[in-house]
Amino acid sequence: MISDENVLSFLDLLDLDEELIDSRLKSIMSRREISDKHLVSAIHLLQYKQLVNLQENSECDNEEEYEFCTKLVREVNVSNIENVCKIITIALGLNSSTLVNKCEHFIQQILSELPPKDEPDDTRAILILKVTDSILHAVSNCSTKLFLPLLEIPVKNILCSSNENMKIQFLSSTVPKMFAAVTGFNILDSIWDFVKHLHDDNRSIALKVLSSLSDYYLPTPDNSGVVLFESKIVLQAEFWQTILYGLLSTDLLLRKLSIYLAKRALDCVLAMKKDVLVEHNGNIIFQWIHAESNSLKTMWDNYFILIDSLEEKQSNIVLPSLNLFPSLKAMGHWLNCAFNIGLKHDNIQVRLKCINHRLEIKLNSKTEAIVLLEALNYINIYDNTHEVEALKKKFSMFVKDKDILLYIIASIPMLQWSPVPLYHLSCILSDEDLKNKITLAGEHIVPIILDILKIPCNNVPLRKAIHINIAYFVGNCCSGLHWREYANIYLCLQMDLSNTSIDKNPFLNLIKKMINEDGIFFDFIQQSYLNIDFGLFYLQQHKEELPIYIDILHEKIKKIDNITNRHYSDKRECLDDVIYLNQLICKTDNKNHDNVINIRETINTIISSNFKTILLYISSLLVNNTILTIEEIALISDGLHSIFNARNIEQIKEAMLQLYKMSVLFTKDKNVALESVILSLHIIHGLTNNSVLLSIPEQERLNVQDVLKIAANFESKQSIGRLRNMFYEKSCEIVFEMLNQKYCCTDTHTDSILEYIQVVLDCGGYGCLQLCLKIINKMLPFVLMRTDTKFNMEQFICRMWKEIEELKSNNQYTPCIREFINLITHEHLLRLPTFNNIVLLYCKKIVDYGPVKVTPLFYLISKLNSTVLTVDHGHVIYILCDILMFSPVPRKDQRIIENLLVKILKEAKYGFDQTYLGTHFNFEVNYCSVLILSKIKDTEILCTIEKFIKNKIDESFKNKQRYHGHSQGHRLLLTGLQHLLLISLMKVNNSGTRTDPTEDMNWCIELLKKLPHQISVRICLEWYIALHLVKMKISLNEELLESFNDIPLISQLFVLYWTAKRIILSEKDDASGQFEFVMDFLLCHTMGPMFNTRLHAQYLATKLNEVSHIIIPKYPFIMTLIERTFKEGENDKNYVKIKDDYFINNFDIIQDLTPSFIYYFLPKYCEINNEFIDIDYVRSTFNAVNSNISDNMLSTDFHKEWVDFHRTDDEIFSLNICNEEGGKLYEGIEASGTIQKKYVPWKNMSDVYVYEAERKKENKSELIVVASLIDKLPNLGGMARTSEVFGVKTYVVDSLRHLQDKQFQSLSVSAERWINVEEVRPGQALKQYLIAKKSEGYCVVAAEQTSTSVKLQNFQFPMKTLLLLGHEKEGIPCDLLPIMDYCVEIPQQGFVRSLNVHVTAAIFIWEYTRQNIL
User: Quick one: DSSP state of residue 1208?
Assistant: First the structure.
């Protein structure tokens, strides 16, 4: 409203005729079409009438104006709504006596137009709400209220609408005005009645609504401490449940809203000064005891601190705050909200500690169990062995509560598991501590266990281990189930437990004790061959019931015999019985079950006496052209091997020969169904090497040529898919078996077989690849001898590689790649130089693929291990060199899986056969390559390998200035130096070769000078130099020191100390002089400027003096002083560390020059190595290596000395590797950290007003920060954080993709979520953007030093400022400087040219904020 003084002066100025005003207004109101100009004129005229009323303190009749308003409302639209609202407010206020009646009628009339349907007309609804606001505004101006008891507002439709503008209008304007101007109808109650009934994800609506209207729902004391009215919703369960929903949400905004509401609600409760107890279904949701207000307030404050800290990403912020968990246990279910964030934290240290805290609080629902298991289902937390074992021990104690165990078990199938976490969880469940403490029974537990067993796992060893662990769990905790439930579980266990010791497997103990109460057990056993294992194991423990099972078998045999002898019977009628018996034959084969002979032998004897019946039935299948499926053919053929090798073979000889002859005839008949041909091939394959065939004339037996003709006939048959593949697989197997027979003349069939191989590769499936390779390997000598053949070996090798690479499953890939390696490393192929390139090509590929697929590389190195290397095998030596330098850096998840596999493959509990599994590791390749290296006797080959290693290292570090620990460079360098050390033991000095004897040592010296090294590499280099000084008998003198120039001083100390120590121990002739030289060198550095150098020099001098038997008068007094100094500082951590260092105190360059020390102890001691190895495999390999070295040992003085003094492997493996991993993963951070109390009062949480447009405009800053010229992500992320903290209006970057980068996010800490970020590319787009902003009134300021730049302290920032930041190096481009309004610089006092751009931006933004906002 205009003030009285302004009204009077305005009237005096105009002094218009009222009648003229009225007539003009009526003419406008009477118009049929009213434009915006007319509305503006109407507003001016109504304002004049309002001013007249105010001057005369009177009222005028406003009926016509009221009608005009109703007319305008009917025609209102988006373009004129503002003017219409102004007219309504002024017109209704012209007569206060009729205001209430008119407004009550008017407001009910227009609100009734709000569409009641679920999806209202949003545009019309917004206009209606704005009109309503104008009416209520008129009421408030007159300081009166409306009485509307029957008012109806479709709250649900408005709040559930997808139109944010409508909700903003309703909540930020309509609701407050209605609350202030309407009685008889409480809009807040209507809204609460709606939102409190929202459930699930719809509760997000409730959170946003309550946050927007928190001033009304959650009133707090004013400045004088008075609360105008008491909040009611804090006493209702629905309110606290809504807050809990938000805190448990994964949406960061909803969590912010919930925290805001919770903080504000607590202030309301505190102001009420009374006890509050909120319950739901008998459970306490919220409780406040007024007498304990202070302690409760502290507890809730700590809770909010914990929640806020968990939102951070940096572990140094989060970890200290986690110490608050123990003090918050009284908060009960509210802690789940903190755990819900912490257990999903990206930082491993935070997640691990949250898991540990969660295990101290009981689970109360399956939802809580799922959150806990999701935290455990993260492979990276299983990297630290000590942490994992501690966690598993704590979890084992946690699940001893039956309710908790049930929640955990029921939740496991609901997750998509990674194999490693699932294995560790199954280990916990298999813990014997659960036995006799918890018993889970009832039908509900079995489906859960079956679902767990069905969880997919592609890693075969891990899947088997998990299943065995689950079997242990069932045996320990699930006694008392029905035998059928045990059978169902047994069928899902993807392994044969029949060979497992009963005493060790509790699940088998349960089967042993189970009772066949209902008499239908044997009906179940005979239903399917899948039940045979379960039935046999049961009978093994219940021998008294064996006769019942034998009777069942006799019935089956009788049925088969009957159907076989009936000419017109359906042969498929007893097919299942034949399959059952065939599988039973396999299961009861005594060759496979020597430990459980009794029952199985009895059953096998019964069936074997009826083998003839089975063979006759199979013959009848062929005669009657019975079509079988591939699966049925495979199941029948499984038992044929046992039948054909039976002990009673003479009794069934006739039936076998009849079946064989019939099969031969069927394979040659072109009119026979393909299924029958395949069955015949299975029979022929089973009998190919059988002694029974010797009684048949040779012309009646199939030979290779016959099989090839059968294959040629098959080409005319129309077939696709699995039948064709099986035909070729079986024919290949028969051909291979025949080629292995003594009487087979391979040379005569070479061309035919090669043509056959081409056909098989073109038409057969992937299953034929291994067989084709086997056949070629068998025939290779004859193939290479033939010069007239069309077969191209190089093309064949290339094709086989491509085919193998396309294989998807490991059970196909592993045998195929093994045969491929046998081919390319075949001795006949290696002899021919023609194939050198192709052999090198694919061996190099195998080595290159090693980090991803190590199994082929293991097969290759194993094959090379059986090859005698000579100088003629140049390409093979090159391959060996490549493998020797194989030093992969596995991904973290890959390393964790491999470490676990190494562990479980050694556990007897799982009974793994590693050879059968085909699982191999990097360490096996590395140690096997060392084994091959140790076999080499030829010095020329050793020198070639040595040269290759040096060249490889030189090439890799040609342009490198440094490398990191455990990086590819570190591993390659260490691996190469380890081999060089071993080679230095194996060969004589280079004096007999064409190379300089000191070349090797000088190479190491140069490498030591070139760049800083990791400790293991540094030791190897120093060791190598010292070793060559001893081998070449180089004197320790000033001339030698000159060659050590630029070598780190510490390295010089160690080289001289180790060399002198060995010379003294060897009692060389010139030991005294060299001892004195080294002692003087060490002592001259005992008072050097560097503490570390002084300490090492002093300590090495004392150790060398202790070793020496040489007495020189000048040293004892100095040694006494040094020892006294050490005694005074014996607790100093540097002294303690150096006193425990093996390489300072115990190391000897000759004694420790053993393979086990070089390859095992050295890397383990110097660095924390998280890669596990099989110690038994390593020791057995070193035994072989030592044996090879001893056999090839030379007779030089150096080697004789080594033989006399070197340590044994037992001594090496008994050494204490003190640097192994251990300790807490987070102990350093946790111990030193303090809790950063980033507690934000609810009054400062401005970002939670999600529906309040006015509050969103509270940010007064008009600053735009343009960082499009900056390309370093840490700087961009840091500036985003600074911009958010100081309320920058817009932050501009060159690409929005930066916001997803981890480098950006690590500095921004989620700031990008809360500020307006725009993308403007550098170049022309940026120039246009700056010009556009200038046209909008922005002052464009550049942070740049120029000849006309202004000092920052002297510059006044306009409110509308655009700050342009330059590139980190080039600054702001010259073509942009003319666009700048000002260039501003920060005064500097130092010598450095400029500040970091992030720091510069922070200073500018702070100065702008200080001048314009604060």
Answer: P
Query: Residue 279: left if φ>0, alpha if ψ -120 to 50, beta else—which one?
Result: beta
Residue 1193 phi, psi dihedral angles, 5° rounding: -65, 135
Report the b/e string of 786-816 with b at 16+ CB within 10 A.
Answer: eeeeebebeebbeebbebbeebeebebbbbb
- Does the pLDDT at position 1408 exceed 50? yes
The C-alpha atoms of residue 779 and residue 130 are separated, in whole angstroms, by: 93
Question: Interior CA angle at 749 toward 743 and 753, to 5°?
Answer: 120
Residue 545 has pLDDT above 70, yes or no: yes
Enclosing H/E stretch for 1232 = helix 1227-1232
The values of phi and psi at residue 601, to 5°, are -65, -40
CATH dotted code for 1259-1412: 3.40.1280.10
pLDDT digits (tens, 9 = 90+) for 751-784: 888 888 888 888 888 888 999 999 999 888 888 8
- Tokens 């130089």 locate to 833
What is the rounded distance in angstroms from the CA atom of residue 281 to the CA atom of residue 694?
A: 85
Helix (H, G, I), strand (E, B) or coil at 277: strand
- CA 121-127-132 angle, to 5 degrees, is 120
Q: Give the C-alpha separation, 315 to 346, whole Å.
A: 10
**Please, what is the Cα angle at 906 between 904 and 908, to 5 degrees?**
90
Side chain identity, residue 512? K
For residues 579-608, give the mean pLDDT: 76
Token readout for 1281 is 């954080």
Instruction: Decide: 1046 and 1089 in contact? Cβ < 8 Å.
Output: no
Cα maximum dimension of the chain: 139
Q: What is the DSSP string of 293-358?
A: HHHHHHHHHHHHHHHHHHT---HHHHHHHGGGGGGGGGGGGGHHHHHHHHTT-SSHHHHHHHHHHH
Q: Contact, 335 vs 343, CB < 8 A?
A: no
Cβ atoms of 1343 and 1319 closer than 8 Å? no
DSSP letter at 173?
Answer: I
* Extended beta strands in 330-459, E state: none
Helix (H, G, I), strand (E, B) or coil at 598: helix
Alpha-carbon distance of 1335 to 1337, in angstroms, equals 5
Give CA–CA dist 540/512, Å, rounded.
8
Query: Would you list the DSSP string of 799-811?
Result: HHHHHHHT--SHH
Please classify residue 189 by burial: count the beta carbons closer than 10 Å to its beta carbon, then call 0-12 exposed, 13-18 middle and 19+ buried: exposed
Sign of CA dihedral 660, 665, 667, 672: negative
> Check: CATH 1.10.3430 for 544-702?
no
| C-alpha closest to that of 985 among 1212, 1208, 1201, 1199 | 1199
pLDDT mean across residues, the chain: 85
Q: What is the mean pLDDT of residues 170-194?
A: 90
Q: Which among 1209, 1204, 1202 is positioned nearest to 1159, based on CA atoms?
A: 1209
Taking residues 96-122, report their average pLDDT: 77
- Tokens representing 1398 are 């992030």
pLDDT digits 0-9 by tens, 686-716: 888 888 777 777 777 888 888 888 888 776 4
Bridge partners for 280 per DSSP: 283
Contact (Cβ atoms closer than 8 angstroms) between residue 1007 and residue 1051: no
In this structure, the number of other CB atoms found within 10 A of the CB of residue 1321 comes to 12
DSSP character at residue 1371: B
At 1360, which amino acid appears?
K
Cβ atoms < 10 Å from Cβ of 617: 22
d(CA 1153, CA 241): 70
Q: Compute CA distances 391 → 376, 466, 1225, whole Å.
A: 10, 18, 12
Predicted local confidence at residue 8, as pLDDT: 38
